Amino acid sequence: MNVSELNLKAKALLEAHFDNISLSGELSNITVHSSGHWYFELKDDKASISCIMFRANNSKLNFVPKAGDFLELSGTVSLYAESGRYQFIAKNMQKSGLGDLEAKFLELKERLEKEGLFDEKFKKKISPLPQKVGIISSFTSAALEDMLKLIRQKEYFLAKFYLFNALTQGLNAPASIIKALKKADEMGLDLIIIARGGGSKQDLFCFNDEALAREIFKAKTPIISAIGHEIDYVISDFVADLRAPTPSAAINLAFFSKDELAQKLDNLEDRLVFFMKNILDKAEQSLSFCEKMLKARSPKELLEQKIKQ
Q1: Is residue 97 over pLDDT 70?
Q2: For a tag site, which of 141, 211, 260, 299 has the least CB within 10 Å?
Q3: CA distance linking residue 217 with residue 236, whole number of Å
Q4: Start-to-end C-alpha separation, the chain
Q5: Burial class (CB in 10 A: 0-12, 13-18, 19+), 305
Q6: Could you read off the pLDDT of 189-220 as tens digits, one per residue?
């Protein structure tokens, strides 16, 4: 049996046993092909499946779904024989309210907000010149590499950086991040940055973990949450002391470059000179006034005025 034959047999087997079934989940990564076919993923909080809805079927709908929609599909489980890719062929689709992940996110956000975990009064101040900085991220992530590249470009020579490896996706990620956060928080750092690059809502959902949110809230060290892209919001963003729209933006928010620092010192020097000149000018004016007053009341001046009278 060759590969083509195996794939065709698997396709026939799947379609025979999983025909006309219902499937529910949250839609993500939808692509509308020039042919009119829709390619997308359907997911829950633990898994996802590739789906296709052909033009002949999607043209009958009175709406175009978008990422985050919770959907009820009916159709057939199949296999694309050329690549051996397992997929679901949707023949019908209907909306079913908020996506499950979105609903969980909103429920937790509302509950923690009521408890006060997002209140500004609890936010710790970020040091303008942090000297010991911890970065919690996956050592294999492009986000971490981008941050380190930016740090080298900025030549931020005054800070010492401590890297903490953690899973940033999947069911075990929250526990991994919490473990790294506890270790970093015990080191007396000036700042901790929790970072992860972009991804789908499912990819980023580990940062909506309640236990992680509470650990960030009770940490002694100021924390910047730098998760995903600018349009992505997770619970960690709301409970952290500062939210950065991207991991690289966290570096720009937290540090001055060598040149920026020199310019800032020049500006401070100019301001100091200006204020000192003002103080000295006022002191000189006051001294001149006192000198005139003393001269006017000196015995010699008083005697000369008596003689003139």
Answers
A1: no
A2: 299
A3: 9
A4: 134
A5: exposed
A6: 999 999 999 887 778 989 999 999 999 999 99
Q: How far is it, in rounded angstroms, from Cα 207 to Cα 238?
A: 11
How far from 126 is each of 85, 142, 148, 212, 260, CA to CA, in Å? Answer: 48, 25, 20, 20, 18
Whole-structure pTM value? 0.62
pLDDT digits (tens, 9 = 90+) for 136-190: 999 999 999 999 988 887 765 578 999 999 999 988 999 999 999 999 999 999 9
Show Cβ contacts of residue 26 under 8 Å, excluding neighbours closer than 6 positions: 42, 43, 44, 68, 69, 70, 71, 99, 100, 101, 102, 201, 202
CA distance 78 to 107: 35
Please state, in angstroms and rounded to a whole number, the distance separating the CA atoms of residues 202 and 169: 9
- 260 band by pLDDT with thresholds 50, 70 and 90: low
- Identify the CA nearest to 41 among candidates 19, 20, 55, 23: 23
Q: Which residues contact 58 (CB under 8 A, 6 or more apart)?
A: 36, 37, 38, 93
| CA–CA dist 226, 233 (Å, integer) | 10
- Checking DSSP bridges between strand 38-43 and strand 48-53, what pairing results, if any? antiparallel
